[in-house]
Target: peptidylprolyl isomerase
Amino acid sequence: MSMQMIDIEELPGAQTPPPVSVGGRAISEADIAAEMQYHPADSAGSAQLKAARALVVRELLHQRAQQLGLTAEGSDAEAVDEAVAQLLEAELAVPEPSEDDCRRFYAAHPERFSQPVQLDVRHILLAAPPDDAEARDAQYHLGVELLEALAEHPERMTELAQRYSDCPSREDGGELGRLSPGQTVAELDRALKHLPQGLHDRPLASRYGWHLVMVDDRQESRRLPYEAVTEQVRLSLHEQATRRALRHYLLALEAELGVQGVSLDDDSGGSLMR
Model:
């Protein structure tokens, strides 16, 4: 597979992209194509650019490690990775955040240091594929009937879940337990954020069918005290500082060694921190 898979040359008025090199050492189209699988993007061209930048970053660091005698020409990938780790430990200056920095960051980002909404939920899933309009219509009307019965007799939730639900939770009377955001199917997750305690009066749609939902308890989001998240705050600030330091370091290497074919962006070193 090569970069020609995007058929750049076949586009009207398009020019062949310039070859990519670092310090005069070429990065092949084949290597960039192989790297693309690790850089999902909304288009092949974007994935190709991300892959090329990632390889440029690695090559910049590899060549700098060679300059310092940390690795030799022809070293295997494991040796190169170890040398790059030694290089960054020796040359990347990352200041530790002060206590004042941490407290300001905590105050400025309350949403990052809060306990999310938590809900105790029971549900009945009436399964219907998204492309089966007849089944979805039938299951919706069944859901309306069941909700009418539950509105009159909410104590029947366990019974009706065991009789009608297509979710494994039917064995537990439809209980999903205590949920935080992101713990259930996305469509239901979005709706749960806004549901008050009690029986929701309409079936909720998802890719799996219709959900009849009863919220038994709802604990609203609350901000965690600074003392409980001090280490999390410090790590967040340290990561930000590391990204800034790495960006400046890579730009300095780019200017010193020379890069052709692509230019580095603000997050070119991001893959090293994932």
About this structure: The first helix runs from residue 29 to 35. The chain has two domains: 3-92+242-273, 117-220.
